[in-house]
Predict the structure.
Amino acid sequence: MINQTATPQSPKPDQRWRLVESAMRRNGYQAGGLIEALHAVQRSYGYIDLPAMRAIAAALTLPLSKVYGVATFYHFFRLKPKGRHTCVVCLGTACYIKGAAANLGEISREFGIKAEETSQDGRLSLLTARCVGACGQAPAVVLDERVIGQAEPAALLELLHGLNGPKGAEEP
């Protein structure tokens, strides 16, 4: 589902859209400025939604399919808002052998989300990586940019619930 409220149907009235227009203008509204325009959207809004892709496609005279293709090809572009907290489960060989699948499965089950999804309350994004470079600490998980080595499902769930507060509690 695409969030229609973060980027207006017509992005021009939104002050954040000026940064995107500036990026496109710097590149002469040429197709070669597509990636820079997508980066500008993500910096301004936190992710790239369909209205923003449509506006970029129109401004750069590109088919929407081209803009969508580039936005989905590169892993650093997000098409959905990121959660308040991010949990990246390493699925590299060492981590996988030592239990990464169990970590991923437990987090997924507990929070009702699959890999590459964000919880409905917007508190947690669950991501995977092929390798986080912590093979000696396998299985590794990166929680809000902090590497957790020898991660075990029960301890991870306790950490995640600690970040998010007790179930049903509202964060400020």
About this structure: The helical segments are 17-26, 34-45, 50-59, 64-73, 93-97, 100-111, 153-164. Residues 34-45 form the longest helix (12 residues). Confidence is low (pLDDT under 50) at residues 1-10, 168-172. The longest strand covers residues 85-90.
